[in-house]
């Protein structure tokens, strides 16, 4: 007798993947209709295919656009995913999610969900009503990854367009293409090929030691952390506004290898002197912000190559865990 198929819970949160446009060629304005698939319709439409690869069960979550998710929504989603795994109700979890902030949720789940079970986030770049919609196959392939023994111990993963990305490096790099997601210098982790085989080319080195590191942090009481993006002529306004709003941390998305304007540097220095943790990142799509001596002298933390929005998540969790000392914070970002 063959072994039973792995159990995979599919948590549905909405997004483009279950949205409906006015016709099959509406690939841009579909969100304006406000119309979605009926609850359960997405998973029901691929039930035969899912049954061939796993014992899949849909676990509904409130359906929201990715850019509308709040801290409360994310805390509830994390609690749901962790509960499924803690109660041994699933061998892996798939989360369907809007692509706009999918990478942020993936990184959060990577940092706060302990254990080896795969957690795979997927979505769609084309609505469910589109000619050649990509969402259904993305879900099937995400379930394949969540059910694969080779995906265990990798933390949270992202699966779109047959490609497997690690949570730390995955980023949305195109607003329209089905191949919208890219990785850092290491490239994708692998693929789901046309024959259904999950092919992992390598395991992620960066961020692996942080998997589940902040499982005990209360996500409902995280401190405020703001991102300030630099540009020519930027002054102290946004930095000072973040401090006035109560930010306990600021991620500075500087130019080049992490360079804000002189007026921003002065404002960030005042913020650091007042006890605000400053992480220096870059607005550039790729490359590191090294922890050069001037950064350490100012009391700032270098983000390495972690994107600003992911640096914000790591900084919030670290502050929530009580980490304040600069060297300890730098070690987290270096990891």
Q: Could you please describe the fold and organization of this structure?
A:
The protein is an alpha/beta fold. It folds into 2 domains: 204 residues, L-asparaginase, N-terminal domain (Rossmann fold), CATH 3.40.50.1170; 112 residues, Rossmann fold (3-Layer(aba) Sandwich). Helices cover 29% and strands 19% of the residues. The longest helix has 16 residues.
CATH class of the largest domain: Alpha Beta
**What's the domain count?**
2
CATH homologous superfamily label of the largest domain: L-asparaginase, N-terminal domain
Taking the sheet with the most strands, its summary is:
8 strands, mixed
List SSEs in N-to-C order: EEEHHEHEHEHEEEEEEEHEHEHEHH
Give the tally of β-strands: 16
Q: What is the arithmetic mean of pLDDT?
A: 96
Under CATH, the topology of the largest domain can be stated as Rossmann fold
Radius of gyration: 20 Å
Strand sequence of the main sheet, in spatial order? Answer: 4-1-5-6-7-8-11-12
Estimated helix fraction: 25-40%
CA(first)-CA(last) distance: 45 Å
Question: How would the global form be characterised?
Answer: globular
What is the correct CATH architecture of the largest domain?
Answer: 3-Layer(aba) Sandwich
Strand content: 15-25%
Task: Tell me the layout of helices and strands.
Elements: E1 7-12, E2 19-20, E3 35-36, H1 41-44, H2 47-51, E4 55-60, H3 71-86, E5 92-96, H4 102-112, E6 119-122, H5 135-147, E7 156-160, E8 163-166, E9 171-172, E10 181-182, E11 190-192, E12 198-200, E13 225-229, H6 237-244, E14 249-254, H7 262-273, E15 277-282, H8 293-298, E16 301-302, H9 308-320, H10 326-334
């Amino acid at each position: 007798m063959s072994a039973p198929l792995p159990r995979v819970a599919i948590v549905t949160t909405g997004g483009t993947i279950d949205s409906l446009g006015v016709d099959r060629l509406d690939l841009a304005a579909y969100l304006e209709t406000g119309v979605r698939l009926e609850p359960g319709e997405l998973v029901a439409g691929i039930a035969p295919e899912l049954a061939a690869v796993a014992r899949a069960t849909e676990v509904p979550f409130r359906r929201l656009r990715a850019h509308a998710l709040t801290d409360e929504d994310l805390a509830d989603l994390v609690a749901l995913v962790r509960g499924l795994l803690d109660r041994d109700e699933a061998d892996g979890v798939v989360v369907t999610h809007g692509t706009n902030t999918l990478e942020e949720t993936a990184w959060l789940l990577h940092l706060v969900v302990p254990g080896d079970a795969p957690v795979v986030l997927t979505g769609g770049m084309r609505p469910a009503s589109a000619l050649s919609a990509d969402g259904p196959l993305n879900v099937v392939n995400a379930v394949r990854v969540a059910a694969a023994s080779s995906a265990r111990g990798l933390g949270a993963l992202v699966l779109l367009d047959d490609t497997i990305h690690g949570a730390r490096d995955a980023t949305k790099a195109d607003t329209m293409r089905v191949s919208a997601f890219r990785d850092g210098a290491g490239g994708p982790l692998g693929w789901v090929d046309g024959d259904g085989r999950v092919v992992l080319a390598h395991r992620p080195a960066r961020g692996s030691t942080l998997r589940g590191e902040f499982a005990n942090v209360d996500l409902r009481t995280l401190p405020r952390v703001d991102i300030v993006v630099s540009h020519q002529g930027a002054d102290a306004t946004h930095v000072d506004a973040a401090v006035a709003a109560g930010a306990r941390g600021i991620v500075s998305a500087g130019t080049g290898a992490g360079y804000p304007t002189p007026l921003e540097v002065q404002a960030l220095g005042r913020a650091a002197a007042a006890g605000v943790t400053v992480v220096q990142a870059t607005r550039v799509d790729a490359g590191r912000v090294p922890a050069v001596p001037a950064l350490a002298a100012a009391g700032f933390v270098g983000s390495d190559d972690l994107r600003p929005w992911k640096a914000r998540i790591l900084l919030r969790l670290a502050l929530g865990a009580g980490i304040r000392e600069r060297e300890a914070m730098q070690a987290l970002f270096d990891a």
